[in-house]
Every structure is written in C-alpha cells, then in structure tokens.
Amino acid sequence: MTSRVAIVTGGTRGIGAAVSRMLKNKGYKVAATYAGNAATAQAFTADTGINVYKFDVGDYTACAASVAQIEKDLGPIAVLVNNAGIARDSTMSRLTRDMWDAVIDNNLGSCFNMSKAVWDGMNTRGFGRIINIGSINGQGGQYGQVNYASAKSGIHGFTKALAQEGAPKGITVNVVAPGYMDTDMLSIVPPNVLKKIVAKIPVGRLGRPRISRAVWSFSSQTIAASSPARPCRSTAVSICTDRGIKIARMRPSSWRYREVCLRRALGYGC
Predict the structure, then answer these.
(1) How far is Cα 9 from Cα 32, in angstroms, rounded to an integer?
(2) How far is 7 from 80, CA to CA, in rounded Å?
C-alpha cells in the first residue's frame, strides 16, 4: 500500500467521487475539493473519511493557497486529478461572454492553476502523476457547447504539451475523455435532448462513474508501479470511455475508423 497524497478536484460527486474512493481504497491519502455543495461534501466525508477542501479551482490564488494547506495537512502531492468542471450550454447567438469565461476558467484554467501549484514540488522530488479529465466533446464537438468543447479540447492540448516538459523529470501527464456519464452535470439537460443523446450511443445507455473508475484503476496501477528509480513511460496518453460514440461518428470505410478500432483492440485508447 502507498501513503502518497492525491488531490481530486470536484472529488465529492460523480466521476470525481468514484476516483476519490478508488484512490483511498488503494492506500492514497486523498484530498477531495469542491466548490459549493457543502451538504454533499460533508456527507461524502462522513461516508468515506476523505478530507474535503472548499475553493474555486478557477481562482489561481485560491488554488495555490489551498494546495499549500493540503500539503501542510497531508504531505507532498504525488497525484493530481483535474476533474472539476462546469457546463453553461448555449448556442452561439445566446452565449454570453460571462458564460464563455466561466467554463474556460473552471474547466481549462483550473488545469493550469492546479498543475502550476503542484509542479515545482513534483519537479524537485522527481515524481508526479497528473491526470486530466477531457471529454469526447472536446474531440468531436457538440451542438450548443462551443465553450465546453473549446475548454475540453484545450485540455487535450495542455496535456500533450505539459507531458513533454514532465517526462524528463519523472512526471507523467495523461488525459481521460469520457462520453456522456450519468452524473449531476446531465441533470440540467432537458429529457427530450437527453433522449436524443442516448440514441446516438451505440451501447444504448449513459456511462456510469464506476466505468470511468475502472479506467482510473488502470492509471493508478501505473502510478503504483512507478518510482523515480523506475520511471513510467505512459505519458501524453488519451484514453476514451465514450461508450462507442467516437467510432459511431466515423465512416466505417475511413482510415481513422480502422485506426481507432485497432488502437482500442491493442489497449492504446484513442
């Protein structure tokens, strides 16, 4: 068992809660962050014993101060899971600058804020694992989600670039791109719209947080098997958990369709 410290942003609900539980079960000291639902966070702590911290991941100063507090309480950060995110869906004609800024700051800006806060420490220790949550809609887009798709697409580029900086220092940076998950974020989607979304999913249903937890379990095995003396080579990897959406959007005759099928068969993700 490990005693390393892991931060999971947005770690008290949905996918984040599943990841927090999984990491704790594997022996990590976990800090789960949340933004505003205190009742849910308190219930999560009572149920799991996981420490929770309230702050805005879109606020650079708050992230730096909170990471410093977490390190004071639990120890040096070895693992960062950038999971927190929001949606402010709207077509371009109705999309406001405030809606754009809120999603970009919380979904993409938070990855920078949190990674920046832990980066120097990981560099000094020669070890770190950063796992970002992207989205299938960051790769293929979605109607009414110009802001969300832009932020999630940015996360994929952020991951690929930062991984190049971290690799020589023993820091890996990877991204998981879920499809539509049965979490609180989808509760605001009108039933008629949700029905159309599910109809486009080849397996015929939404994903569940425990499905993503299985992918994170693979990532945690990578973490556990690695050390400064035995560096992990899995970095800048994108893993899709999209219930087949990406393949369904492609023409079966296309080279990209065949490539994705082959990569998935070989276990390489997207």
Answers:
(1) 6
(2) 5
pLDDT at 217: 44
Phi-psi region of 244 (alpha: psi -120 to 50; beta: other; left: phi over 0): left
Question: What average pLDDT does range 136-151 have in this prediction?
Answer: 80
Helix (H) or strand (E) run with residue 173 in it? strand 171-178
Q: Residue 135's pLDDT is what?
A: 79
- Taking only the tens place, the pLDDT of each residue in 71-106 is 999 999 999 999 999 989 899 999 999 999 999 999
Residue 96: Cβ within 10 Å count: 11
> What whole-number distance in Å separates Cα of residue 152 and Cα of residue 10?
16
Q: Are 79 and 131 in contact (CB under 8 A)?
A: yes
List, for residues 193-233, the tens digit of each pLDDT value: 556 555 555 555 555 655 445 345 445 545 544 444 444 55
Given the residues 28, 34, 53, 148, the one annotated as active site: 148
pTM here?
0.77
Q: Is 148 labeled as catalytic in the residue annotation?
A: yes
Domain 5-196+204-243 has CATH 3.40.50.720: yes
Domain ranges across the chain:
5-196+204-243
- Beta-sheet strand order (sheet of 128-133): 51-54, 29-34, 5-8, 77-82, 128-133, 171-178, 238-241
- Write the pLDDT tens digit of every residue in 233-249: 567 666 665 444 444 44
Tokens of 159: 């991951």
Residue by residue, DSSP assigns 55-70 as --TT-HHHHHHHHHHH
Give me 6's structure tokens: 């892991």
Amino acid at 228: P
- The rounded distance, in Å, linking the Cα atoms of 232 and 225 is 8
Mean pLDDT of the chain: 79
